[in-house]
TrEMBL record:
The chain crosses the membrane at residues 21-41, 288-313, 333-359, 379-399. It comes from Lutimonas vermicola. Residues 292-409 form the ABC3 transporter permease C-terminal domain. This is ABC transporter permease. It is a multi-pass membrane protein. Its main location: membrane.
Amino acid sequence: MFDIDSWQEIFDTIAKNKLRTFLTGLSVASGIFILVILLGFGRGMENGIRKEFEGDATNLLYIWAQTTTKEYKGLNPGRRIQLNNENYNHLVAAYGDKIEFRSGVYRVAFGTTVNYKNESVTYGIWGVHPNYQQIENQDMMAGRYIDQVDLDNKTKVVVISNKIKRELLKDVEDPLTEYLQISGINFKIIGVYTDPAGEREEDRVFVPFTTAQSVFNGSDLINNLAFTMKPEKNFETAVKASLLFEEEIKQYLKEIHKIAPDDDAAVHVNNVMEDTKRFYTLTSSIAFFFWFVGICTIIAGIVGVSNIMMIIVKDRTREIGIRKALGAKPWSIIGMIMQESIFVTAVSGFAGLIFSMGLLEIVGPNVEVDYVLNPSVDFSIAMTMVILLIIAGALAGFIPAWRAANIQPIEALRDE
């Protein structure tokens, strides 16, 4: 029930101790402010890391080979290891039940000249399998991607990026009716793609894998192997499956190419799933640290509220004694003290919440920091924290209130 006299007493007490009340409220508000800002940047890091991994499938294994560094079975170190079609076909046949998408990659010499009419630009030319679209998470803006018929017939077709369309074809309305010349050979444009990783991934054109090997003297050579794993029931199981597959790939390639088992420089596997786990583990650790710092700051504010209420009780000892002498019940004394504690905590908490949420709303979308994207906080989580803060404020006021309620009137009246 609303008691105007109780509220009048609270406002009178606050008015008499403006600085003390302000500093107490500031400590509480700053606790909520710091917690919300830290949680906001924790969410921003999650968003940023998720954005970084949008460029490729998160369950991707990317394999390439370099030179040996150790002698093995009479073979000298320094041998260049070359992947080939046999390696690709074996892995696909042996692990088809584990693989979701697959592609070999044959990269034509970097900076190959691409001509369109009188325009000439250098781009990366990659021969790939049809699944490479899913591996790279590429979206088609027009036309289609490379398919199995293109591979079987070694057709001279090409998929270009939206960036290349703008730079090379410029004002052409329908690029699917046009041809590009790659190293003087005509390739029909069959599709235009975009890459979620941005234009840094759009300096490449894609041709059928078999066509690239045939036209550009690739024989049966492969530069890279790319596989994605089939989905598992949970993230941990998926990580374990990808690590096991990674080891089996290395073991097979080292055995078939006569590489020392402990020569880790000859065969490389970039396991994106492992990188994803590492980043998300780091993010979780940082989020835990942010929660810890924020909650400790709030606790410090609550302790401050409790201390202030104890001082208030001390200052009002004679008043409390008079109230009890006139018949005031212990719970009325407790309610009076707790009401003031809850009021200060609630006002300060909501002030810190509103200011921090407003700051994130204004500044968040404009933050341009690596691995931090649009820091924000779920409003329901923030409100829950404020409600818990108010409950904590009530508890902080209860201890001094209980002490006040148990003061004997005669002792209180003797207080100086």
